[in-house]
Amino acid sequence: MDTKDAIVICDFDGTITKVDCINDFLNRFADKKWLDIEQDWVKGKISTISAMKSQFGLIKNMTEKTLSEFFDSVKIDEFFKDFYTMAKNNDIKVVIVSDGSEFFIKEVLKRHDINDIDVYSNKFEFKNGQFLIDFPYHKDSCKRKSGTCKCSFIKKFKQIYKTVYYVGDGVSDFCPANKVDFLFAKNKLSEYCQKKSIPYINYTDFNEVINNDKFRYRLINR
């Protein structure tokens, strides 16, 4: 099978968005018990499936108006759209693989006029003031017990693309960190990479990704 040139896999919450929008949403609208559940998830005591169902079960009587206003308030990295446009113009595939919510991701991006990016994440349906959640990309073999197994996507994409870039920032990015060709990391992910001696490229925003030599080399030498 002929391989394509390059793909960039991006996390969403805290990577494309300025803050983790799932956590921001829970902090605004859920009972504070969500924080205890979050700590159990961070420590690996419970799965994403268990954590999300419990956390979003704490939200009662959410209205569509309030939900829409929340999505309106979410800010994204001011350079992400430029990055995505530049990658598309150079035939470099960009996808979002997230252990968050496809519904949240698409609603936020829509407000920034980004409607054509492939998103792989947990499925949310908002109905009668509550959230129904499904996990179509869960793998029983996932060591992190993620709702969306990011490593399975990396394995799949490495069979298709010559070079796999990854851009992330948090706990759900730990497992993929040593499985890609070039890793851009910040926040908890960069701390993890330092601790585990995993090579990474530090970044603060997508402007630094655009201008990094490892990425620009791919544009010049396609």
Shape category: globular
Q: Can you name the CATH architecture?
A: 3-Layer(aba) Sandwich
The overall strand count is 8
In CATH terms, what is the fold-level topology? Rossmann fold
Classify the secondary structure makeup into a structural class: alpha/beta
One letter per element, helices H and strands E, the order comes to EHHHHHEHEEEHEEHEHH
Low-confidence stretches are none
Q: Please write the CATH class name.
A: Alpha Beta
Report the radius of gyration as a whole number of Å. 17 Å
Helix content: 40-55%
Written account of the structure:
By secondary structure, the protein is an alpha/beta fold. It has one domain (4-220): Rossmann fold (3-Layer(aba) Sandwich), CATH 3.40.50. The chain is globular, with a radius of gyration of 17 Å. The chain has helices spanning 21-29, 33-42, 48-56, 64-73, 80-89, 102-110, 150-158, 187-196, 206-210, 213-220; strands at 4-10, 93-97, 118-120, 123-127, 130-134, 161-168, 182-185, 201-202. Strand 4 (123-127) and strand 5 form a beta hairpin. 40% of the residues lie in helices and 18% in strands. The strands form two sheets. It has a six-stranded parallel beta sheet with strand order 3-2-1-6-7-8, sandwiched between helices. The protein has a two-stranded antiparallel ribbon with strand order 4-5.
List keywords for this structure.
222 residues; two-stranded antiparallel sheet; Rossmann fold; 8 strands; 10 helices
List the helices and strands and how they pair.
Elements: E1 4-10, H1 21-29, H2 33-42, H3 48-56, H4 64-73, H5 80-89, E2 93-97, H6 102-110, E3 118-120, E4 123-127, E5 130-134, H7 150-158, E6 161-168, E7 182-185, H8 187-196, E8 201-202, H9 206-210, H10 213-220
Parallel strand pairs: 1-2, 1-6, 2-3, 6-7, 7-8
Antiparallel strand pairs: 4-5
Helix pairs in contact: 2-3
